[in-house]
Amino acid sequence: MNSYSNIFEQEDWDSLKASIYHKTSEDVLRVLRKSRKDIHDFATLLSPAAESFLEEMARQSMVLTQQRFGKTIQLYAPLYLSNECQNICTYCGFSMDNKIKRKTLSDSELLLEAFALKSMGINHVLLVSGEANKIVDTAYFLNAIALLKPHFAQISIEVQPLDLADYQLLQQAGVHAVLVYQETYHQEVYKEYHPKGKKSNFKYRLETPDRIGQAGIHKMGLGVLLGLEDWRVDSVLNAKHIDYLQKKYWQSRYSVSFPRLRPAEGIIEPNFIMEDKHLLQLICAYRIWNPDLEISLSTRESERFRNHVVPLGVSTMSAASKTNPGGYVVDPQSLEQFEISDERSMEAIRDMIKGHGYDPVMKDWDQVYSGV
């Protein structure tokens, strides 16, 4: 199979890093004045030299976001299915080597969690689980989707990478989007963060979006775990991956997320600290480079930061999130995958968005506008 891994083999982390850090103010000005940006311009907008232009980047990002998405923020919530996991990941609370109580939702528990989300007005749900192929497998996901489909306008999933045949079944079952994060594109150290389990296979994970695209899934989401390695280099490689996918699987839509390492049971400290101003720079750089890209921000981020970035490039936000299986009503004390930072209710988030003059959208606008 021709896949992104064939292209990625040509990348050199150190050379890319050097090129980013050697950008000048003149390079940034040239990019900001261009009417259309390419992937090389994205790297310039992430450079240290671009930090002095953050105000202009934010202005351009806001204008482009309103042109493409209007003054709207789509809201969704995650529904955690299971904290079972067969991987050891040094940064995750679900890691197999953590001695915790494991839980996988039954059909009745799944529906109780779903009804709790529905009571908050949620119409777009993201199903999340640990990576345990023998416990939460494709059959489990298909059953969950069948149970939930009558109750939600869109069902997306963020689970372990699957084979093409599995994604084809999920597409037929009506999955709206699949999210999969490479965590880091630094192949040489990837194994250190993922020492055991199927997730330790860097290439299989890297080729996952190709399988999602081949299956015809409506939307796919990518991202890196900010804090593992240099955020500028990882983000440029993530953008290159998206650029490749958009050209090859042009029928699909794309989103990017920005998970920063948060406290969790038994995890490592971040290797790289990413400041708020750098996350804002990253959000604006993505929007200026790729106006059609959906940009999502989770409750990992603080109230203050999320309030601030509503008009500056974000198109999607999670709200009232629980990151543990059964966290809404069934088993609120089960172990979280990570601590959330913005703990406000769905109503409070909606009021905050309205306070900015924006509309909180509870259903994906693409299908709203197409009459589906």
Cα-based radius of gyration, to the nearest Å: 20 Å
| Proportion in β-strands | 5-15%
**Which blocks of ≥5 consecutive residues have pLDDT under 50?**
365-372
Mean pLDDT: 90
SSE arrangement, N to C: HHHHHEHEHEHEHHHEHEHEHEHEH
Q: Can you summarize the main beta sheet?
A: 8 strands, parallel, barrel
Shape: globular
Structural class by SSE content = alpha/beta
Describe this structure in words.
By secondary structure, the chain is an alpha/beta fold. It contains 16 helices and nine strands. The chain is globular, with a radius of gyration of 20 Å.
List the helices and strands and how they pair.
Blueprint: H1 4-8, H2 13-21, H3 25-33, H4 39-45, H5 54-69, E1 72-82, H6 107-119, E2 124-129, H7 138-148, E3 154-158, H8 164-173, E4 177-179, H9 187-193, H10 202-206, H11 208-214, E5 219-223, H12 231-248, E6 253-257, H13 276-289, E7 294-297, H14 303-309, E8 316-318, H15 346-355, E9 359-361, H16 365-370
Parallel strand pairs: 1-2, 1-8, 1-9, 2-3, 3-4, 4-5, 5-6, 6-7, 7-8
Features:
single chain, 372 residues, alpha/beta, eight-stranded parallel barrel, 16 helices, 41% helix, 12% strand
Short summary:
With 372 residues, the protein is of the alpha/beta class. Helices cover 41% and strands 12% of the residues.
